[in-house]
Design a protein that fits this description.
alpha+beta, 33% strand, AB_hydrolase_fold, 16% helix, serine protease, 726 residues
């Protein structure tokens, strides 16, 4: 399949990386206790207007006093400024915040490389020197040649808030189609560059969203919406996705409409071409739960029209590539842990499918067709395994990996004899390997060097019992020799949804937390994809409460096993994970000291009314269905804040340009929390300006966010990580 590098997940929610922190080691635990927490009484929250608005859901009256915060206007801007002033005043009063930021900046400043990929006979790779806001794309004639800067996204804006979001080279390597996004928005603008000269052409395509450029001949396919006609372009509901073909050198007004569906406003169409540009494949989705329909067009046949291969939304289908007239497809149809089948698109009936690689006990996570081989990445208990097959499905060998961790990459063409992949784990910085496909030989290509002693830490995987008896895995990372005395500051981070798997990965920010004696814990909750579609469905509507129960049980396990206590526990999550934290803190407010819901879905009754929110209905349910409304109402964080309850110290994080999970979710949640929550803990919101859901955020803003987050955690745990250095 023609590979498009896309930096946004189309249509769904993304897992936002955990904000943790750590700094130089000072004692055996790296932390000393000092009661310095600023009390909630000292905070002067802004006066927040209420309106008299009540909705009737099947006879249940639900007040929505902060409905006005859904409309972005000058009044809301003033409220945001007032909230940020209070929050920044609180954070700036924390003595050690600057020390945290300085240490983060110090350890962040190391070269970060992406795996090389080959286009037009040349090698390309991304590199960040250390503190650059955006990574730079380099090119080299051979692996031994001197790399040269090919494209520097840092020159797109002075403050680093314009990011590269997608790119794909034409088959001959003559052109590069790439997307940019401003302020973290999902809206993309596509451009074209001439690779030989680096000249940016006049081509400019607007209102692109949830797409990638896919080349065919002297142009490419892409998907877009009509330009918004009224209201807030960052909140308007996205409807009637369309597929176009753009010919290089022509204005967007002349682009050919390839496919639209006038009867189904809420369908998304993601077009990709096979490696040989023989087929156009349309992945058709009605929601972000993973199930999709599959259409195709034979581009070599002038009379060919777009026809269905699968025309329902019962299972998931992903075309790996074509072998001649046949399509190699990864699917969970009758295989919850996925399998590989060969489908003749002209005879697509299931009885005609040929099984190439059957379902196994491990989850098939990804497949590449490279060098005459099928390279399959599996997941066993949330860690990677790689197996190589021939094109008939005969198992040839396994790819040796250094330890338990996560693999990404293996992106190449069928004609390639080499391919690169990246391996990482919690304490194993991303390391790039070269894989000689015909000879099954792995060699280290580039090792990442960091200014932290990663050998000082250990990772273990435990299996704890959730409320209904289900065994749930959890990774726990900490210093070697940690004392289990219940006093260790612990950061519990999870996601639990949309079939997204949480696997081991390296975070330099986590190193700050760990080197100061903190514990980092990441459970693999139901709703994710760690054990296939059955595990996912166990956390979807009407089973969403299972996800929250799994998270609560993880916290209880860490406390029961003396890793920490409620007074030293912080819970965090972003996006769907923000919902997770919101449900946790409203259901068990006494269980954690700090709560960090980021860009979260907090209003479960209205999420489907904004931008791409309608796509999450298969995952959550809809308040427009009576039974689903009753279920949503039981856990919607906004609607379960109780008067007079002391909630954990809360730092809500969002951004004014988030058009994935619109910031009104966070605005309404913090307004309710400040109004009803009992005094004793701070309830604050941190609103990034000119930032979005998380993708493309400049390094400078990321470091500041981590510094603020860690400072907030330590302050409310009564811990000064640098007291002995003062």
């Amino acid at each position: 399949m023609r590979k498009t590098t896309v930096f946004l997940l189309a249509g769904g929610l993304t897992a936002v990386s955990a904000c943790t922190s750590s700094q130089t080691d000072t004692t055996a635990t790296g932390m000393t206790t000092e009661t310095t927490a600023t009390t909630e009484q000292a905070l002067n929250y802004p006066d927040t207007k209420k309106v008299d608005h009540i909705d009737d859901y099947f006879g249940t009256k639900v007040a929505d006093p902060y409905r006005w915060q859904e409309e972005h206007d000058e009044e809301l801007d003033e409220w945001i400024a007032q909230q940020n002033e209070v929050t920044q005043g609180y954070l700036s009063s924390i003595d050690f915040r600057d020390e945290i930021k300085n240490r983060l900046t110090e350890i962040w400043n190391y070269p970060k490389y992406g795996a090389p990929f080959k286009e037009g006979g040349k090698y390309y790779f991304f590199k960040n020197d250390g503190l650059q806001n955006q990574s730079v794309l380099y090119v080299q004639e051979s692996l031994e040649a001197e790399p040269k800067v090919f494209f520097d996204p840092n020159k797109l804006s002075d403050d680093g808030t314009v990011a590269l979001t997608a790119l794909q080279f034409s088959k001959d390597g003559k052109y590069l189609a790439y997307g940019t996004s401003s302020g973290g928005s999902d809206w993309n603008t596509y451009h074209v560059m001439e690779t030989a000269t680096g000249k940016k052409l006049d081509d400019q395509l607007e209102w692109v969203k949830f797409s990638g450029p896919s080349w065919s001949g002297n142009g490419f396919f892409y998907s877009r919406y009509d330009a918004p006609t009224e209201g807030n372009k960052l909140a308007n509901k996205n409807e009637y996705h369309k597929v176009y073909y753009h010919k290089v050198g022509t204005p967007q007004s002349q682009d050919q409409l390839v496919y639209e569906d006038k009867q189904n406003a809420l369908r998304n169409f993601y077009g990709q071409t096979t490696d040989d540009e023989r087929f156009l494949i349309l992945n058709v989705s009605e929601g972000a739960s993973g199930a999709n329909a599959l259409y195709f067009k034979d581009l070599k046949d002038p009379k060919s029209t777009i026809k269905p291969i699968v025309d329902n939304f019962e299972s998931e289908y992903n075309v790996v590539d074509n072998f001649g007239d046949q399509l190699l497809v990864m699917t969970n149809k009758n295989a919850p842990r996925y399998r590989l089948v060969m489908i003749d698109p002209k005879k697509p009936q299931e009885q005609n499918w040929k099984v190439i690689v059957p379902e196994s006990e491990n989850v098939l996570q990804g497949v590449s067709a490279v060098g005459g081989r099928i390279i399959a990445t599996y997941m066993k208990d949330a860690t990677s395994q790689v197996v190589v097959f021939d094109q008939s499905g005969k198992q040839l060998n396994a790819v040796e990996l250094p330890t338990l961790g996560t693999v990404s990459g293996f992106n190449g063409k069928q004609s390639d004899k080499e391919v690169f992949f990246t391996f990482t784990s919690f304490t194993y910085p991303p390391t790039i390997y070269r894989y000689d496909v015909p000879n099954n030989k792995v060699t280290q290509f580039r090792k990442t060097e960091v200014n932290v002693d990663t050998d000082a830490f250990e990772t273990k995987q435990v299996f704890y019992t959730s409320k209904d008896g289900t065994k749930v895995p959890m990774f726990i990372v900490h210093k070697k020799g940690l004392k289990l005395d219940g006093t260790n500051p612990t950061y519990l981070y999870a996601y639990g949804g949309f079939n997204i798997s949480m696997t081991p990965s390296f975070s330099i920010a986590n190193m700050l937390w760990l080197e100061n004696g903190g514990v980092y814990a990441m459970p693999n909750l139901r709703g994710g994809g760690e054990y296939g579609e059955d595990w996912h469905k166990a956390g979807m509507t009407p089973n969403k409460q299972n996800v929250f129960d799994d998270f609560i049980a993880a916290a209880e396990y860490l406390i029961d096993q003396k890793y920490t206590s409620s007074e030293k526990l912080a819970v965090a999550g972003g996006s769907n994970g923000g919902l997770l934290v919101g449900a946790f803190m409203t259901q068990r407010p006494e269980l954690a000291k700090v709560a960090l819901p980021a860009v979260g879905v907090m209003d479960m009754l209205r999420f489907h009314k904004f931008t791409i929110g309608w796509a999450w209905v298969p995952e959550y349910g809809s308040s427009e269905d009576e039974a689903q409304f009753k279920n949503l109402y039981t856990f919607s964080p906004l609607h379960n804040i109780k008067e007079g309850v002391k909630y954990p110290a809360t730092l809500v994080k969002t951004a004014d340009h988030d058009d994935r999970v619109v910031p009104a979710h966070s605005f309404k949640f913090i307004s309710e929390l400040q109004d009803k929550g009992a005094p004793g803990n701070p309830y604050l919101i941190r609103v990034d300006v000119r930032a979005g859901h998380g993708a493309g955020k400049p390094t400078s803003l990321v470091i500041q966010e981590y510094a603020d987050t860690y400072a907030f955690i330590y302050e409310n745990m009564g811990v000064n990580p640098y007291q002995q250095n003062q």
